[in-house]
Amino acid sequence: MLGWKFPARTTAFFLVVASLAMGVLAFAGLREIHAINAEHSDIRVDRAGRAAAALFEQRSADFVLECDVDGSPQKIQIDAADRLEPSDSFDSLVDSISSVNQGAANIFRRNPTTGSFDRIATSRKDESGARIGASQVEPGLIVATHPAYATVTANHPYLGEVPVAGGMRYAYLIPIVDAQASVVGILAVDVGWVDDLNRINERVANRVVGAVLLLLGVMAVAGVIVMYFAFRPMNRLIKVAHDLGTEDAPDSIQLTHRRDEIGYLAQGLAKVVELQRDLAHRAYNDLLTGIPNRAAFIRELERRFTQLGKVEDPGTNGFALLIVDLDGFKEVNDGLGHQAGDELLISLTASLRSALGPGEFVARLGGDEFAILTAPGVVDIASVQDVTDRVTADLSGVRRTCAGDTSVTASIGIALIPEHGMTSEVAMSHADLALYAVKRNGRGHSRFYECALSSPIQRRMHLTTELRRAIIEKSIRLEYQPIVDACDGQIRAVEALARWTHEVEGEIPPNEFVCVAETAGLIDELGSYVIEQACAQIATWRGLGFAVPVVAVNVSTMQLWKSDFVDLLRESMQRHDIEPDRLCLELTESVLIQHEHEQHRWMINELAELGVGLSVDDFGTGYSSLSYLHNLPVDQIKIDRAFLARAATDAKRAQLFAGIVSLAHNLGLNVVAEGVGTDAELALAQVCGCDLVQGFHLDGPMPADIVCSRFDTVNTRWAEQALLPV
Asked: Residue 326 in contact with residue 352, Cβ under 8 Å?
């Protein structure tokens, strides 16, 4: 139906215009017909009135007829009102008038008492032929509500529609006056029914509308057919023009043989197709060797990654990326000349192309560098190594050039997809790293990519990209490490810790990806994500009926530089209906050292007013912060693990540890011994009066569904009598 759309649309446009034009003409014609009919009715009624008045005047020399300048009767003057009485003479008169005008005639006398007009004579007969009214006075037939009453009583004739026998008739009513010019009667004559004229007008209108619709229908059918065949070649060219920018672009253009406008358009499109074909060849093919170039390779690589994303197990459709670099090619170019180098490249390319297996893809990336993709599904190391050996064999041997015989070897870097990357950039970067490792170690062989090959910068860039994607896809998970009461061993709080399992590399250490987040500017997004997930988990636990302990969340210094941090925190808590005291924010000592900065001081005070707990994390790594504790609205300190570990084996450090705990208690702060790793460290924390303890010796981080099962239990260390608090 595509071929009918344009002619149908064009015909519809012309039909609208034609409909409007014909509608205006038909409306104007109908108005003219109505006006002519109305004028003819008025003329006929006027003539009837003139004839009736003339016949009335002839009845008596005492009757005087007055007419206007056009001869239309205005009134009839009689000598006395008592002359208007029912009589055979008046019956004969109205019969004569009716015969002449072929319409009804009536004579009325005004009743001086009621003011209405009584009929004294009429030409109208009933079905039996008897005169209606039997030549007697019929009172009150024209009263004040009659359409002609006001006009006639004002001594003027009335020409128009009047009610007669349940219908409307065209009539001429002439006032009859006495010698004092008072209206004493009416001579009325009518010529036909108004409904008859309306019916005629309606019939004419229906015929006009029917003719217009028929004409429009014929025009529509004829227009669509004619324009379809007229524009059919144009539709074909329009589709060709549309397809030029897609993968369905035609190889050739028809209709170029025509010698009209369509032929000229077809010839122009043919030139565009030829130019597009040439540009596409240049854009995606290497001009020297004729094989796909870097752009074509990237397109093919992206296509394969798209296909991988559509399957549940990308490993089943994986493939290998081989980047091949020719060793010694520069020496050939410098020693034998660029022509010899070009001939060498052409010869090597021909060997690679002829040796390609089903589903394999080869491209020249530039200079002496090539790239090969193995067939989908060929991803195991043994199969990929077979392909690599075949490529190495194809490129070896002596090659003849115009400047003499020469030979080269190949260094090959290999990346396995999806294991070594799920994007083109990452996969090529890893294959390049493997290639560089080959070149550093003697060239002429191949190597698979390994994580150890990544440089710190590349590693950081790679993790930045992957971490950003992980945050967006919400693949960062939270685990919770219990913080237990040093006295009874029950869980008083849990610390929310971010964990990241990469789909290829597995577990990424928290200290590594947190550092990447801070240097890459992602720490704010990561921190907001952790807070949101922690609040959601609190709401989930509460919904399951658990008595939820305080959840501690680490906050970076960079987050506190964000002016909207408090608002975002408040919104997250309100979204999940979380009480502020269920959340504790762990701040680093660097915040304390910088607390005199206006932004930090304001932020810490805002957090305190919000009602969330504030804890100083890793206390003891920066001793200068000790003097600031009394100036900050913090609730607790977490003594750093290293400080506790040294204190457990050094008496003087143990005394210092006890002093810090005592000082914190004097300042009204709770103390958490962090990183408890041995029974001795646990005992020291208990002896020194720590309120809470935390560490792998007690419990490590665990998923939310496991840690909640321990909320109402006592830690096993306290369950054993030997480890009861001192």
From this structure: no
The 3-state secondary structure of 668-690, one letter per residue: CCEEEECCCCCHHHHHHHHHCCC
Q: Give me the half-sphere count of Cα atoms (radius 13 Å) on the Cβ side of residue 288.
A: 19
* Helical spans, DSSP H, in 399-509: 424-440, 456-472
- Asked if residue 175 has a cis previous peptide bond (ω within 30° of 0), the answer is no
Can you list the domains of the chain with their CATH numbers?
1-243 (3.30.450.20), 244-284 (no CATH), 291-453 (3.30.70.270), 481-496+528-723 (3.20.20.450)
pTM: 0.47
480 alpha carbon, distance to own chain's centre? 39
Give the pLDDT confidence of 542-577 residue by residue, as tens digits. 999 999 999 999 998 778 778 888 999 999 999 999
Rounded-to-integer distance, Cα 62 and Cα 712, Å = 131
The string of pLDDT tens digits covering residues 384-415 is 999 999 888 888 777 777 777 777 888 899 99
Residue with tokens 């290639």: 435
- Any idea which of 177-191, 207-221, 264-278, 422-436 has the lowest mean pLDDT? 264-278
What single DSSP character describes residue 125? B
Alpha helices in 326-417 (DSSP H): 329-336, 338-354, 381-395
Token couple for 82: 């008592």
Output DSSP code: residue 323. Answer: E
Instruction: Determine contact, residues 291/299, Cβ cutoff 8 Å.
Output: no
- Residues with Cβ < 8 Å from 7, sequence gap 6 or more? 223, 224, 227, 228, 230, 231
Pairing mode, if any, of strands 613-619 and 117-122? unpaired
Other beta carbons within 10 angstroms of residue 281's beta carbon come to: 11
Residues 6 or more apart in contact with residue 661 via CB below 8 angstroms: 639, 671, 688, 689, 690
